[in-house]
Amino acid sequence: MKKLIKIAAVICTGLLTAGYHTLTANAEMVHKAWGQGSSNTFILGFNNAVGSAINIYSLQNTEPDVIHHTGNYKGINYDMLEVKPSETTFVKVDYMGHAEWLNDIYDWGLISEGYTRVGGINANYYSWITNPNYGEPVGGLRMAGKWTKFQGRINLPEYGSGFATAYWDRTGLMRLVYSGEDAIYRSQWIGEEVESECAVSGSYTYIVDGERKDLTDGYGWYAYHSNDYAFACFAQKEDGTYYLISFWNGMRDEKVQDFLMDLDVYNAIRLDGGTSTSMCYDDALVTEAE
C-alpha cells in the first residue's frame, strides 16, 4: 500500500554520490523544456528540476557523432538527439540525490578524466514535493554496475509497479525488462535479473526487440495510451544508435510507435514527463539536422 501511495505522487529525482559536483561551465548548453496541459508549449529554458539524467559524453578533442532533430510527425512535436556510440562517445545514467536542473546532473569524474558532456534528457520518475520522501526514485537506477541508494534504501526495479527498466552498457544493445522486487510485499525478486553498467526504470515500453510491445501489459503508470503531457523517451536502433527524445503537444501511443518504427527503432521506453520534460546539449558539439 505504501508503494501505491508513492506511485500516485511521482515525477522524477536523484541521489548525491561521491565525485559529483555542480557544473558551472555550462553556459554554452542549449536548454529546452516543455509544459503540460493547456501550457504544453516549448520554452527555451527549464520548467522544473529533475532527478536523474541520461547523458551523452565524448572524449575531449574528438568529434562526437550527435545530431539534433526537431520537427512534427502526424501532429506530434519532437526534439531529438541522435547518438552514434563509438570508442570515444557513449550514453550513461547520472544521478545526484536531490532535485536539480538538468544541466547540473552530470559525472564530474568523467569531466576530470578528459570527457565532455555533450547533452542529455531527464530520466526516471520520482516522488514529488508533496511526498515525505521527496526525491526518491521510482524503480531502479544503476550506475557503474551498482544499484544506487536513496537515504540508505537501494533503488531497485519493482515488478507489478507498471515501471519497466532499460539496461545497457557503453557498447552493445539496450535491453528492456519488466521484473524486480515484488511491488507489494518486496519479499522476493520476480522475473529476470540483468547485469549491466547502467539501468533506469521508466514507465511502459513502446518497442521491444523490434516489435510494438508493452512489457507491463497495459499497467504502465502515467497517462497510458494518450495524454496532453510532454514526456521523454529513450530508444535505440539495432545498429546501436541511440535516440534521446522529448515529445510534446499531445499524442497517442500509436503515433509515437509509428514515429519510432519509421526510425527503425529496436527498443524504446517511456520516461518521466510533464514539466520535468527537459533537454540540454552543447551546440558547439552537436550537429543540427538539415
Low-confidence stretches: 1-27
Count of runs of 4 or more consecutive helical residues: 3
What is the oligomeric state here? single chain
Helix content: under 10%
Number of strands: 26
Distance between the termini: 50 Å
* Percentage of residues in strands: 35-45%
**Could you report the average pLDDT, rounded to the nearest whole number?**
83
Strand order of the largest sheet: 19-18-24-21-22-5-4-26
Radius of gyration: 17 Å
Q: What is the domain tally?
A: 1
Describe this structure in words.
This protein has helices spanning 2-7, 108-112, 253-262, and strands at 29-34, 42-43, 50-59, 66-73, 76-83, 89-100, 115-122, 141-143, 146-147, 149-150, 153-154, 158-159, 165-168, 175-177, 180-182, 189-190, 198-201, 205-208, 211-212, 226-227, 231-237, 242-248, 251-252, 265-273, 278-282, 287-288. The chain is mainly beta and 290 residues long. It has one domain (2-24, 32-37, 45-141, 155-285). The strands form six sheets. The chain has an eight-stranded mixed β-sheet with strand order 19-18-24-21-22-5-4-26, covered by helices on one side. The protein has a six-stranded antiparallel β-sheet with strand order 2-1-25-7-3-6. It has a five-stranded antiparallel β-sheet with strand order 9-8-17-13-14, with no helix packed on it. The chain is globular. The N and C termini lie far apart (50 Å). The relative contact order is 0.23. Residues 1-27 have low confidence and may be disordered.
